[in-house]
Amino acid sequence: MPKTCIIIGASHAAAELAPSLRQEGWDGRILIIGDESYLPYHRPTLSKAFLSGEKSADDILIRPEAVYEKNNIEFMLNVRVDSINRADKTITLNNGEILDYDKLALCTGSRVRTVPLSGIDLPGIHYLRDLSQVEGIMQDVGEGKHAIIVGGGYIGLETASVLRKLGMEVTVLEMAPRVLARVTAPEVSEFYSRMHAEEGVTILTDVAVSGFEGDEHVSRVICSNGETLPANLVIVGVGILPNVEIAQDAGLEVDNGIIVDEYCLTSDPDIVAAGDCTSHPNALYNQRIRLESVPNASEQGKSAAASICGNKIAYQALPWFWSDQFDVKLRIAGLSQGYDEVVIRGNRHEGREFTAFYLKEGKLIAADCINTAKDFMISKALLSKEIPVTPEALADESFDLKQLLNS
Ligand code: FAD
Questions:
Q1: Residue of the nearest CA to atom 27 in ligand 1?
Q2: Ligand 1 contact via 43 beta carbon (within 6 Å)
Q3: What distances in angstroms separate CA 253 from CA 80, 109, 389, one per listed residue?
Q4: How far apart are the CA of 275 and the centre of ligand 1, in A?
Q5: How far is the CA of 191 from the centre of ligand 1 (A)?
Q6: Which of 32, 105, 212, 289 is the most exposed place for a label (fewest CB within 10 A)?
Q7: Does any ligand 1 atom lie closer than 6 A to the CB of residue 33?
């Protein structure tokens, strides 16, 4: 009997894992089960080129359908896996169907954090995680209309940038004293506030939302400071939660993500996990981390596929991310959490090009590269190879950092 590998979740991790299984020699059945209606698509484009209308749903597929057909990869879409029974190696779907597996891959990703505020269910108020939600948002976009973005994180600011370019009056409400507070240094937050202001986006910090009002459709956002803002469209972007419940209920180890080792193996040798849903060890930072990033999902997909086939590819990649807002491409190398020093290369007060390097106890741990693609490439290499570099060299634009790579 050919063996069956079932992959739960049909997104970035699954789209890498399934073809990698064939490359690693899996000749059994591969079935991807996903609760959305689309083949895996590039999720980051949702707050970028898809929302702006530059790309269609077909344009953003991670792989054309033919690739899955060629590799004999089957899909069951619009269906959820409700539970995993590890004792008899079955899963139960929300339509009651029970399927057997030999190997199971959990690529369940994450979901938006919801806010239980009054009026949240009014039409015109949206979350932004999947393609169908963006299709809903597009119905409420219109030149001159008021858009309120709740949350000044990357997704909130990217959305603000696209909606502004589409001619909307955009206001971002951020509870913290600055935007991007969870992920960047104050210097970088300050830059983004300046850039958004230059583009005509209003950013209000230290402001929480206490509720939404409207008759048939949202028309007002009530703020904690008593202010009321007009709204034709509201997008709530206040973070995500990993989808770990079916793993947890099945008795797998879970702690801020499904616990996996560097080979993406869970505490059950027949079950792997990859992507946003995992908590995995990172040798460079010497700690367990959970990442919300496409490169992580793809690389873990490859390691997980190898493990299923009894091969070993350790996942040891340097975390990296990107964000597009107006004409600024931010590329982030490494993880800045725990930094004790920030070094700026370039002029952060004028123009739109500089790099913020993050150090901890004198060691470079991350870099936010704002329109500085070269600094990003060099930072990735410095970080991956743990090459020492002084704050003075990082700050000195006349010093070519590239020469450190040959040392
Ligand atoms: P996901 O993409 O979350 O997919 C998991 C899938 O599994 C979902 O379709 C989910 O519905 C499904 N699922 C979950 N449970 C079940 C179940 N029980 N049964 C069936 N199906 C299930 N990352 C970057 O690196 N750069 C960016 O610029 C960037 N921008 C982003 C912009 C937006 C708007 C969003 C939402 C995300 C962005 N990200 C970005 C994050 C990136 O998209 C994620 O890190 C990536 O999608 C993770 O892939 P994944 O396969 O692990 O999980």
A1: 44
A2: yes
A3: 21, 16, 39
A4: 8
A5: 28
A6: 289
A7: yes
Q: Do 349 and 282 belong to one domain?
A: no
Please give the distance, rounded to the nearest whole angstrom, from the Cα atom of residue 249 to the centre of ligand 1.
Answer: 21
Residues 347-384: tens digit of each pLDDT? 999 999 999 999 999 999 999 999 999 999 999 999 99
Nearest CA to ligand 1 atom 5: 109
- The answer to whether the CB of 369 is under 6 A from ligand 1 is no
The pick from 6, 43, 94 for probing ligand 1's pocket by mutation, whose C-beta has the most ligand atoms within 8 angstroms, reads: 43
Assign residue 339 the CATH number of its domain.
3.30.390.30
Reported as a single tens digit per residue, the pLDDT across 269-311 is 999 999 999 999 999 999 999 999 999 999 999 999 999 999 9
Cα separations in angstroms, 151 against 154, 160, 347, 370: 9, 10, 27, 21
Ligand 1 near 108 CB (within 6 A): yes
pLDDT of residue 2: 82
Q: Cβ(159)–Cβ(236) under 8 Å?
A: no
Q: So what's the pLDDT on residue 406? A: 84
pLDDT in tens, 26-40: 999 999 999 999 999
Q: Which amino acid is it at 35?
A: D
The answer as to whether 320 is a domain residue is no
Place of tokens 């743990």: 386
Span from the CA of 127 to the centroid of ligand 1 (angstroms): 14
Indicate whether 407 pLDDT > 80: no
- Asked if residue 254 and residue 107 are part of one domain, the reply reads yes
Say what the pLDDT of residue 241 is. 97
Beta strands (DSSP E) in 23-141 are: 29-33, 73-76, 81-85, 90-93, 98-100, 103-106, 110-112, 125-127
Domain limits at 270? 4-111+241-308
Residue 1 has pLDDT above 80, yes or no: no
User: Can you tell me whether residue 360 is helix, strand or coil?
Assistant: strand
